[in-house]
Design a protein that fits this description.
Blueprint (H helix, E strand, L loop, with lengths): L21 H20 L10 H6 L8 E6 L6 H4 L7 E6 L6 H13 L4 E7 L3 H12 L7 H17 L5 H19 L1 H8 L4 E7 L6 E7 L12
Parallel strand pairs: 1-2, 1-3, 3-4
Antiparallel strand pairs: 4-5
Length: 232
């Protein structure tokens, strides 16, 4: 990880998010992601910040405008589905977007040190981690090795879905995304403090593998869910 640079020292889109208008920075960051996803869906990609000059510009410092805590699924590459480039996104990926100390530490670094105004929990339909957890619960047999940690991390979401009478896989995925948002805020005092102070927002998104679209399923603060993408 590179050290954060002086605000205004780096050219490029991400600089405009590092302003004193912190609530506005959160909204602009989310709007930028949603606009990029719309370009991806409509095949009007711009491929921003992917050239040699920008590579040189971000070689010594970084100012990402969003943190993506996403599932490791090979079809869920954040820079592609949001049409972004080098230095734009701080990406952390685990199976089923499960969180632990290393994930939370990475998020806290981005939010507290790099001053990134938006954290996104990115899940997707037909999630294999959720399916594995459902199978383990149904058969009463836990997977072996470290895979068990992934399954165990999804279990609270399964219980929450069961209490709500939800059995559809993709509806459970949405619950799991919202559960991850809540768990991050409960587990990280630093992240919760940034959100409470207005310096950061946490948004849960679900991605449709076939259509390529993302939709917001959870947000803190809640008004972030109403942010409409800026014109691409």
């Amino acid at each position: 990880m590179s050290r954060p640079g002086t605000i205004g020292a780096q050219p490029g889109l991400e600089r405009e998010y590092l302003t004193a208008d912190l609530p506005g920075a959160r909204q602009r960051a989310l709007a930028e992601l949603m606009a990029g996803n719309r370009r991806f869906v409509t095949d009007t990609l711009r491929h921003p910040n992917q050239n040699a000059s920008h590579r040189a510009a971000v070689a010594t410092e970084q100012h990402p405008f969003a943190v993506i805590v996403g599932c490791s699924d090979s079809r869920l590459a954040a820079e592609i589905i949001f049409d972004r480039g080098l230095g734009d996104l701080f990406v952390v990926r685990t199976a089923g977007h499960t969180i632990g100390p290393e994930v939370l530490g990475s998020v806290e670094y981005a939010v507290s040190v790099l001053r990134t105004p938006l954290v996104v929990v990115l899940g997707h339909d037909s999630c294999g981690a959720v399916q594995a957890a459902r199978a383990a619960a149904a058969t009463g047999t836990a997977p072996t090795g470290h895979l068990r940690a992934v399954v165990d991390a999804v279990v609270p979401s399964l219980r929450r879905a069961q209490q709500a009478g939800v059995d559809d896989l993709d509806a459970i995925v949405d619950i799991h995304i919202a559960q991850t948002v809540e768990a991050m805020l409960e587990s990280s005092e630093a992240l919760a403090a940034e959100v409470a102070a207005g310096g950061c927002a946490v948004v849960g998104m679900s991605y449709r593998l076939a259509a390529g679209e993302v939709r917001i399923v959870a947000a803190e603060p809640t008004e972030m869910a109403g942010v409409v993408a800026a014109a691409a």
